[in-house]
Hints:
Number of strands: 0
Radius of gyration: 33 Å
Distance between the termini: 72 Å
Structural class: mainly alpha
Largest sheet: none
Strand content: under 5%
Amino acid sequence: MQKNKTLVEILDEILQYEEQDLDLLVALVEYIRPSGKEIEKGLLPRLDEFILYLKQDPKYRIALSEYIKRVLSKRKISRFLIDADIVYGTDFLHEIRKRLGFKFLPYQPEEGGIEYILNQLFYKTSDGKWIQEIPKEKGDDLIELLEMPDLSSLKPEDLIIKQILFALRVLSHRMIGHAFNTEVMRMVPEYENFDSPFIALQEWVDQYIEDIRKGIISRSSEEESYKHLNVLLRQCYDYVEKAYKNRSKFGISQRIHQHLMTIERMLDRLKEILDFLVLYQETAPPKQRQQTLFDMMQWMVMRHARNRQLGGYVIKSTQLIAQEITQHTGSKGEKYITHDRESFFKMLKTACGGGAVVGVACIIKLLLSKLDVSLFGQAFLYSANYALAFVTIYLLHLTLATKQPAMTAASLAATIKSDLESKNKFIDIIKLSIRAFRSQFIAFVGNVIVAFPVALFLIALLSWYMEDNLAYKKADFLIYELDPIRSPAVFHAAIAGFFLFLSGLIAGQAANRSLYNRIPRRIENHPFLKRFFSPEQLKNLAAYYKRNIGGISSNLWFGVFMGTTGTIGVILGLPIDIRHIAFAAGNFGLSLFGNDFSVSPGILFWSLLGIALIGLLNFIVSFALSLILALQARGVAISRLRNILTGLAKEFFKQPLLFFWPVGLPETAEMKTENTKEK
């Protein structure tokens, strides 16, 4: 087949063609398909030309009509109606691998089905968009010109109607398998003593189909059978909604989410197929207009395009889990945002305590580095040191500054959504962002101003006791690690920011999994523990676990990330490591003592600048990733951030001190008033 044929050349070949291969139809679609710029502008110039040719020359219209009917003759559509863009399995990673594979080696369906034709004609990702742009009136005219039968004129014994009815039956039966999954049923205990709406739906669909086939009822939307079918569909949707609402009580797993998402898609599909079958009255609302054969063709092309999408599937599949994770971190994040002078200085106090723990951890790491152990041993000891420090900070209710962004992002995202719903020009989120930034700043200050002197004092004390400068050999290297120009300190700080974000996810996921697996309840009712503890003690232990498992897991794993990244970099020969602002401040104290406080002003300047940049990258990376996830979980477009950043910039130029210090009593009174209203 030659390329770049004119429309007349293609139509002339169709005029003489008597086979049913797709080559000429492919060439026709290639000619009509608009360019990228035309799609953006919503223009379809060659489609208009094509319709004009059919209207002006009957021989082309008749030949094309006969050719398309030969191509579509006895094509099966039921499988496509049932399966297109619906994932029936619950293995998320398997579906990801499959769709990735289709990106490089497109899926080729069997030649007997409609999907094979769609795959050959509409293989570009943009095809769904421009097909959808074709006006209904123009599409219906095209179907009429080609003398294709309309859906409303078809009888129950016609092939298309038979396959639609078969698809309805299969979908109603398949739904039951997902709805009666043990884990799904556990999410809706409210339905344990009632008949499942899915059984009622399946039985009624079977009856509805048989009545249509036997001519007992028509396909009219005014039939009582159809109205009752819609009532049952609504009950099934309510079942799914109830299961999602109950996740705050029982937690939720990715597998359950996949089951519920599949049920929801099958309900949507059943409703869409019904719209192709049912005949609406002329007085029906505009939303319930009569579906035509062209509507079905548009729908098929759109579903075929979505069937290959990877990004949309990932977002839909992970959105609920992301929302559940950020909900748990967000509930903990409120305490990291100060609202008045009292909480601001309390944050400073707890951050100073956290800095003291970090100073001790810096000394322990220096001593561990002197041990002659394997790379694995080094990674294990460093990880244990970091993890112990972070968990201690958490359990003593102290503050580690860089742990804040991952926790506060969920609160910010929730406020953004609230602002969008109330249309108040992001006033609330701008106020909250200023408070969050101010809180983060004072936490940085508290960590740094204490980690530095504590590390310095302890190394001096130990060196005096050991009669040796313990930091001498490491001093130059510690100085080098802080240099933002000569060393990859900034890059390593960004890596730390990523792991801070990841540890925030771990906190949310640990809390969600604890709830889903009913761990607190299992602890409270453990038969072995009951032999040693009273019911009240077990209840307190279960409550303590529920309250702290997320925070302990998060800090434990962040310690592991901190301790192993550098070792993994050595093993792989990659320049990767982690830099954290509080430890950078402590290490700076060690380097000063190791050099007997004899450093040039230039080194002093670059070291202090390096510490500041490390803190900035820790914050920016962890906060940005956490906020993006939180926005995705709540279905808020990331583009909304532009308006918020503009508003923050204006506020900064008006009152820059407000971003660093709780200036002015009016603000404090205002915040207290707001908090009272919230309560």
